């Protein structure tokens, strides 16, 4: 069963998408070249498939001599870009400890820790030192900026300009242009004032405005509550 796709003619095999290969033969090492090509395609086209990438890492476990550290690095970088989803931890679980101890992977683990703990200043400082690892994946910086804004929106109703600048690693005129775009497209409001002390009002959500969060008790039908009273009595 596991070799079913392998036995089919090469021309017919190539008609399968990567997702179909994963669904049909997730434990067949013969699909590894197709999935590795798909990882590179995700990088080039800025798409993402966690299931396919996890399948690659599982197959590397079965045949470690075929492991490509370049492919593993790209999978981990794409997983970082998916935060706040826990994809990085899921991928790391499938990577042998001896591989994790390689310098580039230790660096990616450090970057992950900084992001998980919202230490964005330290993250960008560390990222600048390993630009040669990260710049092979287009869209990385923009994805992390989006994650940083997500974290800030969970915490702040009004975020100081200096805090935002550190979190997304943008300053000066570039930050002005970014803010203008957010005001026009995302409902941000700039408070009066200038310089690093300027405040930016973020859109309301149930985290930065707890009163917006629905009380689950409000959703319990009255008849369910009345049924509980005799039990309590």
From TrEMBL:
Keywords: Cytoplasm, Initiation factor, Protein biosynthesis. It comes from the Eukaryota. One of its GO terms (molecular function) is RNA binding. Its main location: cytoplasm. GO terms for cellular component: eukaryotic 43S preinitiation complex; eukaryotic 48S preinitiation complex; eukaryotic translation initiation factor 3 complex. The keyword Glycosyltransferase does not apply. It is found in: Cytoplasm. Residues 48-207 form the PCI domain. GO terms for biological process: formation of cytoplasmic translation initiation complex; regulation of translational initiation. InterPro entries: ARM-type_fold, CSN8_PSD8_EIF3K, eIF3k, PCI_dom, Transl_init_fac_sub12_N_euk, WH-like_DNA-bd_sf, WH_DNA-bd_sf. Belongs to the eIF-3 subunit K family. Component of the eukaryotic translation initiation factor 3 (eIF-3) complex, which is involved in protein synthesis of a specialized repertoire of mRNAs and, together with other initiation factors, stimulates binding of mRNA and methionyl-tRNAi to the 40S ribosome. The eIF-3 complex specifically targets and initiates translation of a subset of mRNAs involved in cell proliferation. Component of the eukaryotic translation initiation factor 3 (eIF-3) complex. This is Eukaryotic translation initiation factor 3 subunit K.
